[in-house]
Amino acid sequence: MIYPIVKFGDPVLEKSAAEVTSFDDGLKKLVEDMFESMYAARGVGLAAPQIGISQRIAVVDVTFKEDPGAKLVLINPVIISKEGRQRNSEGCLSIPEFREDVTRAKIVTVRAQDLSGKFFEHTGEELLARAFLHETDHLNGKLYISHVSALKRDLIKRKIKKMVKAGEW
Ligand code: NI
């Protein structure tokens, strides 16, 4: 099932999501649906709050279907190490049509649980490192625009307000 993507302005995007405690068939189905919804929206990462479900689950595929082995499910993810710096353009499915340069760590290790509840660690570089940070932020109620200057952030928020008024958001 393809879920609609929740957009900026919905409070679910700005609250901390709940820990996953039950690793059952419902979780498996939800993760399948999250991949489906992410691909339909042409994204490379999706956090559960972005489909209105406030739970600590994220899916990532920085190859966008090229490599089935690149599909990652992160349940209750925690960033355990960050190294270096990269600055690149970043966007978010919940803030469509906007992109901003964001400075992030270049090499990032995440510790998370898989669908069976087993803990694992995964180190990513470049875009994957960025995805780990971006999606983990989502689960903490934080959006990438919190990493840009206040000036740029206010500009984006003003534009979104106008779009909301015009019924375009
Ligand atoms: Ni996002």
Describe the structure.
With 169 residues, the protein is α+β, with helices and mostly antiparallel strands. The protein has a single domain (11-165), classed as Peptide deformylase (Peptide Deformylase, Alpha-Beta Complex). The chain contains three helices and seven strands, in the order H-E-E-E-E-E-E-E-H-H. It has helices at residues 25-40, 126-139, 150-165, and strands at residues 45-47, 57-60, 72-83, 86-90, 100-104, 107-113, 119-125. The strands form two sheets. The protein has a five-stranded antiparallel sheet, sandwiched between helices. Strands 4-5 form a two-stranded antiparallel sheet. The longest helix is centred in the N-terminal third of the chain and has 16 residues, at 25-40. The chain is globular and about 45 Å long. The mean pLDDT is 97. The structure holds nickel (II) ion (NI). The site of nickel (II) ion has 5 residues, from helix 2. The site of nickel (II) ion (NI) has 5 residues, from helix 2.
Radius of gyration: 16 Å
Any idea of the CATH class? Alpha Beta
* Biggest sheet statistics: 5 strands, antiparallel
The portion of residues assigned to helices is 25-40%
The rough form would be described as globular
- SSE arrangement, N to C: HEEEEEEEHH
Q: What's the average pLDDT?
A: 97
Task: Going across the biggest sheet, name each strand in turn.
Answer: 1-2-3-6-7
What is the CATH topology classification name? Peptide Deformylase
Residues in β-strands, percent: 25-35%
- Please report the total strand number as a whole number: 7
Q: State the domain count.
A: 1
Q: Flag low-confidence runs.
A: none
Helix/strand-derived category reads alpha+beta
Number of contiguous helices: 3
CATH superfamily: Peptide deformylase
For the terminal residues, how far apart are their CA atoms? 23 Å
Judging by the overall fold, what is the CATH architecture?
Alpha-Beta Complex
- Bound chemical compounds: nickel (II) ion
